[in-house]
Amino acid sequence: MRHLYLHIPFCHRRCSYCDFNTYANMEHRIEAYVDALCQELAMLRDQLPPLPASPEAAALRPSIFFGGGTPSMLSPAQIERILQAAAEIVPLTGAEISLEANPGTVLGRDYLRDLRSLGINRLSMGVQSLHDPTLRMLGRIHTAAEAYASFNDARAVGFESINLDFIFGLPGQDIEQWRATLTEIIRWEVDHIALYSLILEENTPLYAQVTAGRLQIPDDDLTGAMYELAMEMLGAAGYRHYEISNWVRPSVSDRPDAPPALACQHNLAYWLNSDYLAAGAGAHGHVFPQRYANLRPIDSYITAVQSGRRPIAETTLLTSADLAAETMFMGLRLDIGVGFAHFAARVGQSLLDYYGPTLEQLSQQGLIECSAQRVYLTPRGRMLGNQVFAHFV
């Protein structure tokens, strides 16, 4: 299977917490960027990664993921051109094609209908909060009402799968405000929900405001309580907590020992430590034994591609130990954990032979459990996930 990430680094306004490779007030470079992105995709046609040996990875649908930045700043015609170029790498028929969208840039049902007609079948909206003063503080350009309207519009034009992103542990957020947000999300009957604990990134305005004492964020105990409340409320509403930060409405075809049908296929490729290609400014790709990162500045990226060379800024050579470690700490994020057959197919060695003493130690601490087919986190292990993952780094 083929997986392709496409980075669209444009934003109307840079959010106060964002440390991604994004740029505001660069709309005049979008057309040249689209040209360069299509040229880079042509260069990647001969760089296809091998097909996966793991049955779990092979079961995934091929995927294309438009990330950002704000891909919904592109016109349908520009997205169509990119998809035509991407089709040389990932056949569009049968693929999961995701596009990240900011509710403040989704201009009604006509735009969404055009996206749907191009074959985009999964929409991921960065809502982040349903509290308007918090949205303004974060630098978001939409309101809670506009987010709900965009969600309803996407439903109305027939999107098969819609994800909404939210952040918890935000400045000024308390448990009751978070409870109200979860109650509203459940009322909307969202297909897929991604909930992320705020990470203060250096060199962001929010980091400067918090460290200067102008804003105060919840402490670790309160943030942990928010995560526990999400698990409780979403679980009671019937959502499956299939990955540490992701919940999904179950389908009748779902099996408890396999990822759910509405899980993001592209992200599953990451969590299964599959190979994938990436294109665009600052995009990161992974074709074992190498990981690569593209040039980050938009103009540097465009110039490199126009000169006829791949716009790679750096490459990292991965060892077999890196492959084993990444297969474990990425796969353990899933509720199904890491299958013994998957590890052996990906790494070429038995999981128990490779990590037997580590697994025994974590099991004795109540952080993991083992079945006949796989190893997975316990509920306590999910709360202490980073401590578990550190054993494999």
From TrEMBL:
InterPro entries: Coproporphyrinogen-III_oxidase, Elp3/MiaA/NifB-like_rSAM, HemN_C, HemW-like, rSAM, rSAM_sf. It is found in: Cytoplasm. Residues 1-240 form the Radical SAM core domain. Keywords: 4Fe-4S, Chaperone, Cytoplasm, Heme, Iron, Iron-sulfur, Metal-binding, Oxidoreductase, S-adenosyl-L-methionine. The keyword 4Fe-4S applies. Its main location: cytoplasm. The keyword Chaperone applies. One of its GO terms (molecular function) is coproporphyrinogen oxidase activity. PROSITE patterns: RADICAL_SAM (PS51918). One of its GO terms (biological process) is porphyrin-containing compound biosynthetic process. Gene3D superfamilies: 3.30.750.200. One of its GO terms (cellular component) is cytoplasm. It comes from the Bacteria. NCBIfam families: hemN_rel. Probably acts as a heme chaperone, transferring heme to an unknown acceptor. Binds one molecule of heme per monomer, possibly covalently. Binds 1 [4Fe-4S] cluster. The cluster is coordinated with 3 cysteines and an exchangeable S-adenosyl-L-methionine. Belongs to the anaerobic coproporphyrinogen-III oxidase family. HemW subfamily. PANTHER family: COPROPORPHYRINIGEN III OXIDASE, RADICAL S-ADENOSYL METHIONINE DOMAIN-CONTAINING PROTEIN 1, MITOCHONDRIAL. This is Heme chaperone HemW. It comes from Chloroflexus aurantiacus (strain ATCC 29366 / DSM 635 / J-10-fl).
